[in-house]
Amino acid sequence: MNKQERLLTYSGNALLYGFLGVLFVVTFFPFWQIFILSVNDGTDSLRGGFLLWPRDISLDSYSAVFSNPEILDSVKVTLLRTMLGVPLSIFCIALLAYALSKKELVFGRAINLFFIFTMYFSGGLIPTYMIIKSLGLIDNFLVFIFPGIINIFWMILVRTFMEQLPRELEESAEIDGANDVRIFIKVILPICLPVLATVGLFSAIYHWNAWYDSYIYTYKPDLKTLQAVLVKILNQYQTGDMLNEAQANASKRIPVTSESIRMTVTMVATIPIILVYPFLQRFFLKGMLLGSVKN
Amino acid sequence: MKASAQPSQNKLTKKVVKQRYLYLMLVPGLIWAILFSYGPMLGLYMAFVDYQPSLGKFWSSFLGSKFVGFDWFSYFFAGNDFYLVMRNTLVSSILTILIGFIVPILIALSLNEVRNMAFKRVIQTVSYMPYFISWVIAANIFVTLLSADGVINELLKLLGLTKESVLFLQEGKYFWGIVASANTWKEMGYSSIIYLAAIASINPELYEAAKVDGATRARQMIHITLPMLKPTIVILLILAVGNILNTGFDQYYLLGNSLNREYSDVIDTYSFRYGIQNGMFSYASAVGLFKSVVAFILVLGVNSAARRMNNNSLF
């Protein structure tokens, strides 16, 4: 390598690692900032300044958040909908995917199209609201479960997986006299565990992150999910209630401000996603890759 | 003809009977699709009547509403709101495509050059993270960073670029840039996966041959990796253009406020405000239907364009 080439390699590497370094800061720092503001003393944060590290560590806003009945209830509702919604979703999606994966299904192509069409055309916000209302799902816990029980993208992921299974698996069971239901439960479900786990993670994240259904379709305070409560807190902040309150608090010098509460609730809503993240990387990214390569 | 049609029909019935359990498995999915997808589509009749929510029972007053044809549509197209929401929808979408489309390609190309696996994993892990959090969390993060005493303003002051805090979310002119950056931030790491997969499928012999010819890493990137990525890039760009009206609702609703509405109001938030908040269900349905139809035609057109380019349908 001559001198010029070496210089070129060095500057190329500098550019490369510089870009990836910026990428790291841009994605990581916002989360870090929220974390710092959630563990820093609320009144101290009002002084402003560049906070890279907590100046005055205080867990008061965490104890305030975890002793707030509204937030505790919302965590309960969110956990409940996740625990009920995920297994139901996996089961219904697997059923649908299995039936649609059968090449010999009479009218199979038409039925497939019937489902695919729903991905490309929707009635929109208002007619959906009307249907939810006329089904009696307003202010009903089931509104968290049924409308989102099936997702056609995930169904296609499972269907593709099932279509690639060797035919012989089912044939030997058929010879033993097993019907489609038995084959589905005894043969197909166990083999599909990896892809169903992927769908389960997708679904768990969907339920944990969902805010719109709780925000729009429920009025009762005991049906608000954590994300819906966080939207309420954000709205209060945006409309300026927080500003006045923050000024009032600054003079009183109390450790918790509505701003530090907002940061803490944001953290509480983020942490579960971070916790399932290792599993996500293992199953779901692999699954996504499979789907994307096929496309 | 008749003689042969009869047995084949019998055969069909037999086949359906034999597949009865499969049809039974379709039932939950069918009920879901009919109730929550096709139901709302039928409910779009709302857009062609003058529905008054105050009149008694929902179904009787809905079906008994006065038919007004395309009146709501012409009302929407004639008003100034149409221009505003279309402008906001298109400009913020195009801006998102401009920024959000290039960054994932750069990320994939850069990650592909990194030889240190641990470093690569850290960057990947961190950059995928924003994709998995909700827009509610993302909006809270952006509101915090962009606030008057937030990090961005502190940084601008430190660099001497501004003396007074910039009110990013209160002044509408910044909104399109903010939403395009937020979209990019949330999606860039995740979107790079598809390019990384495409790079991984490039035949390694091409690189071997280039090395023999003495091509540097930079030259390999420009002359092998990029041309091999071109089909993927073109397909994804076409798809992005097809989804230009599907801006998403969350980020506009959550980052928007009454001060920046002139710039933050897109078709979805507009329809939401008029329908759910102001009770003008028929008008809001018409606005939503306009979007659904145009978006559907765009996606279909784009699909056939992609099919022609790739001989491979996206359906």
UniProtKB/TrEMBL annotation, chain A:
Classification via SUPFAM superfamilies: MetI-like (SSF161098)
Mode of membrane association: Multi-pass membrane protein
GO biological process: transmembrane transport
Residue ranges annotated for the ABC transmembrane type-1 domain, each copy included: 75-280
Main location: membrane
Lineage top rank: taxon: Bacteria
GO cellular component: plasma membrane
Cell compartment(s), UniProt: Cell membrane
Similarity annotation: Belongs to the binding-protein-dependent transport system permease family.
Protein name: Putative aldouronate transport system permease protein
UniProtKB/TrEMBL annotation, chain B:
Biological processes per GO annotation: transmembrane transport
Keyword Disulfide bond: no
UniProt membrane topology term: Multi-pass membrane protein
UniProtKB keywords: Membrane, Transmembrane, Transmembrane helix, Transport
Lineage: superkingdom: Bacteria
GO cellular component, one term: plasma membrane
Keyword Cell membrane belongs to the record: no
InterPro entries for the chain: MetI-like, MetI-like_sf
Pfam annotation, one family: BPD_transp_1
Occurrences of domain ABC transmembrane type-1 (ranges): 86-302
Transmembrane segments: 21-38, 58-78, 90-111, 131-152, 227-245, 280-302
Cellular compartments annotated: Cell membrane; Membrane
Family designation: Belongs to the binding-protein-dependent transport system permease family.
Record's protein name: Putative aldouronate transport system permease protein
